[in-house]
Design goal:
With 534 residues, the protein is α/β, with parallel strands linked by helices. 26% of the residues lie in helices and 24% in strands. It is built from 14 helices and 28 strands. Strands 11, 12, 13, 14, 15, 19, 20, 21 and 24 form a 9-stranded mixed β-sheet that branches. It has an 8-stranded mixed β-sheet with strand order 1-6-7-8-10-9-4-5, sandwiched between helices. A hairpin with a 5-residue loop joins strand 11 and strand 12. Helix 1 runs antiparallel to helix 3. The protein is globular, with a radius of gyration of 23 Å. The structure holds adenosine-5'-triphosphate and manganese (II) ion. It comes from Mucilaginibacter aquariorum. GO terms for molecular function: phosphoenolpyruvate carboxykinase (ATP) activity. Its main location: cytoplasm.
Length: 534
C-alpha cells in the first residue's frame, strides 16, 4: 500500500497526524488489495470486492444528529428527523474519535460533490477501513487534480470500530452520524454501512444549496434521451430510482441525488449505489453488468463453493448493495449535467394496490404529492407479517432534509411552472390487491409506461379521472395491457377497492394536516376527495 506520488495530505487541521499510518488517495486496485490484506472482504468471480458492513446493513436515521450552533439554530427544521446535538459534546466526541484513530492505519481520500463546477465542494474523507474509501472513490466525484496540502471545504471522518458511550457522549446508541455545519465536519462512528457516508453529505447539500444558493436539491435519479430531454425520478428507498433510471435507450445522469439550478440539473455524486436483491441480467442488465472489477458488493452471499453471487440470498439483509462509479455504465453522462427536465416522475411503491401504475398530475396535484411523499412499507420480510404500512416522507426524502419541507416544495413548484414540466405519478408497487393478495407491478410494464410518457405515447390517448384521488389515468398505453392501467379493474372485488382507496385517502388527508398552514387552498384541494371515515 503506497501513497500515490508519496504525497501526504494536510491533516494538521484535524489533529489526526500523530503516529498514524496514512494511505492517501489510493487507487481502486490498491484499495482492493488493502481490503483483502486486512480481511475486510474477498473477490467475487467478476472481480468485485465483496465485504460485509457488520452490525449495520442499513442507515440508522434515529442516530443522525446536527450540531445546534449559530449556523443551524434558527434555520434547521428540528425534530425527530433533525435531532439536535450540543456543540461541546461534538467537540468531545471528535477528540475521542481522533484519539481512537491515532494508532491505526487510516485511508484518506480527496473527492468532491456536485458535477456543476459552480456548486462544487471539496470533501476530504478519512476512513478506518479500505472498503469505505473504495466506496467514496466510486460514489463521490473523482477530481482531476487534488490539493493534499490544502484544507478542503468539508471533512468526513468515519470510524466504524469506534463505539460511543451514550451515557457520556450524548448519543442515543454506540453508533452515530453527526453533522457540524460550523466545523464543516461529519463524524461517523459505530457503523460500517457506507450509505451513511453518502447520505450525510446529501444532508449537507440539502442545507447549503437551497439555503445559501437558491438551488433545489432533490432525492431523485435522472437520465436524458438522445434529444437532450431530461427526466427525473423522485422516490423513497426501494421505489425504483436506480432501477428505472438505468435505461439502455437513455443516458444516465445519476441514480440518487441531484441539484436543479436555473437551466440545468446536475448530479451530486460520481457513482451509483444499487440494490442487488433479486438482480438478474435479463431484468436489470445495466446494473448487473456494472458489477465488474473494483465494484463494491455489500452483504451479499455466494453460491456455496463458488465466488458467484446468489442475488436471491438475503440471509444477511434484504438491503444487499453494489457501489460502482458511473464510468462502469456505458451510457453515463460525465460530467453529469443535463438540461432542466421535461418530465418528472414521482415513484411510489403502494403496497395497498390503490394508486394507478401511471397517472398524470396537475401542477397543484404535483405539489400535493411532493409534499406528501407517500409510499408504503411492507411490514417486513419477517414471516407472517402481511399488513403494509403507509408512510409519508415529505419531498420523497424527509430523512435527509435539514430545512422545512415546504422550502423545497416551493422551489420545485416554481420550476414546474417555469419549465412547464409534465408530472407523472408511477406506482411501482402492488396491483390486483394489497401486498399478500396482489402482486408487484411488472418491471417491464413500468418501464413501458415510462417510455410511453417520455416518447409522447400518452399524448393522444384518452384519460379518465380517478374517483378518489382525481389524477388522470390513461386508458391505454403502448406495450401494456389495458386492464393493468385501471387499478380497480385488477381487484377481484370493486367494493373492496373503493373501501381501501378511501382508507388511503384518509391517511393522505391526515398526514397533510401538518402542512396545511404552509400550503395554499389550491394545493390542499388537489388532494384526494374528503371521505367519510370507513
Ligand atoms: P434507494 O433510495 O434505497 O437507492 P431506489 O429508489 O433507488 O432506492 P431501487 O434500488 O431502484 O430503489 O429498487 C427498486 C427495487 O424494486 C429493485 O430491486 C427492482 O428490481 C424492484 N422492482 C420490482 N418491480 C419493480 C417495478 N415495477 N418498478 C421498479 N422497480 C421494481
Ligand atoms: Mn437507489
Amino acid at each position: 500500500m503506497n501513497n500515490m506520488n508519496n504525497r501526504v495530505p494536510n491533516l494538521g487541521y484535524l489533529n489526526l497526524a500523530n503516529g498514524t499510518a496514512i494511505f492517501y488517495q489510493l487507487t481502486p486496485a490498491q484499495l482492493v488489495e488493502a481490503a483483502i490484506k486486512r480481511n475486510e472482504g474477498v473477490l467475487s468471480d467478476t472481480g468485485a470486492l465483496a465485504i460485509d458492513t457488520g452490525e449495520f446493513t442499513g442507515r440508522s436515521p434515529k442516530d443522525r444528529f446536527i450540531v445546534d450552533d449559530e449556523i443551524t439554530h434558527d434555520v434547521v427544521w428540528w425534530g425527530d428527523i433533525n435531532i439536535k446535538f450540543a456543540a461541546n459534546k461534538f467537540d468531545a466526541l471528535y477528540n475521542k474519535v481522533t484519539s481512537y484513530l491515532a494508532n491505526k492505519e487510516i485511508f484518506v481520500r480527496d473527492s468532491c460533490a456536485c458535477a456543476n463546477e459552480k456548486y462544487h465542494i471539496d470533501i476530504r474523507v478519512v476512513t478506518e477501513t479500505a472498503y469505505q474509501n473504495l466506496f467514496v472513490h466510486h460514489l463521490f466525484i473523482r477530481p482531476e487534480v487534488v490539493n493534499p496540502e490544502g484544507q478542503p471545504e468539508w471533512t468526513i471522518i468515519a470510524a466504524p470500530g469506534f463505539k460511543a458511550n451514550p451515557a457520556t457522549d450524548g448519543t442515543r446508541q454506540e453508533n452515530f452520524v453527526i453533522i457540524s455545519f460550523s466545523k464543516r465536519t461529519i463524524l461517523i462512528g459505530g457503523t460500517g454501512y457506507t450509505g451513511e457516508i453518502k447520505k450525510a453529505i446529501f444532508s449537507v447539500l440539502n442545507f447549503i444549496l437551497p439555503h445559501d444558493k437558491q438551488v433545489l436539491s432533490m432525492h431523485c435519479s435522472a437520465n436524458t434521451g438522445n434529444r437532450g430531454d431530461t427526466a427525473i425520478f423522485f422516490g423513497l428507498s426501494g421505489t425504483g430510482k436506480t432501477t428505472l433510471s438505468a435505461d439502455p435507450e437513455r443516458n444516465l445522469i445519476g441514480d440518487d441525488e441531484h441539484g436543479w439550478s436555473d437551466y440545468s440539473i446536475f448530479n451530486f455524486e460520481g457513482g451509483c449505489y444499487a440494490k442487488c436483491c433479486g438482480l438478474t441480467a435479463e431484468k436489470e442488465p445495466q446494473i448487473f453488468n456494472a458489477i465488474k472489477y473494483g465494484a463494491l458488493l455489500e452483504n451479499v452471499n455466494f453460491v456455496p463453493g463458488t465466488r458467484r453471487v446468489n442475488f436471491n440470498n438475503i440471509d444477511k439483509t434484504e438491503n444487499t448493495r453494489v457501489a460502482y462509479p458511473l464510468s462502469n455504465v456505458s451510457n453515463a453522462v460525465i460530467p453529469s449535467i443535463a438540461a432542466s427536465p421535461k418530465n418528472i416522475f414521482f415513484l411510489t411503491a403502494d403496497a395497498f394496490g390503490i394508486l394507478p401504475p401511471i397517472s398524470k398530475l396537475t401542477p397543484e396535484q404535483a405539489m400535493y404529492h411532493f409534499i406528501s411523499g407517500y409510499t408504503a412499507k411492507i411490514a417486513g420480510t419477517e414471516a407472517g407479517i402481511t399488513e403494509p404500512k403507509a408512510t409519508f416522507s415529505a419531498c420523497f426524502g424527509e430523512a435527509f432534509l435539514p430545512l422545512h419541507p415546504v422550502a423545497y416544495a416551493k422551489l420545485l413548484g416554481k420550476k414546474i411552472k417555469e419549465h412547464q414540466v409534465n408530472v407523472w405519478l408511477i406506482n411501482t408497487g402492488w396491483t390486483g390487491g394489497a401486498y399478500g393478495t396482489g402482486q408487484r407491478m411488472k418491471l417491464s410494464y413500468t418501464r413501458a409506461m415510462i417510455t410511453a410518457a417520455l416518447n409522447g405515447g400518452l399524448d393522444n390517448v384518452s384519460y379518465h379521472q380517478h374517483p378518489v384521488f382525481n389524477m388522470m389515468i390513461p386508458v391505454s398505453c403502448p406495450n401494456v395491457p389495458d386492464e393493468v392501467l385501471n387499478p380497480k379493474n385488477t381487484w377481484a372485488n370493486a367494493e373492496n377497492y373503493e373501501c381501501s382507496a378511501n382508507k388511503l385517502a384518509n391517511a393522505f388527508v391526515k398526514n397533510f394536516e401538518k402542512y396545511a398552514a404552509y400550503s395554499t387552498v389550491e394545493i390542499i384541494n388537489a388532494g384526494p376527495n374528503t371521505v367519510v371515515a370507513v
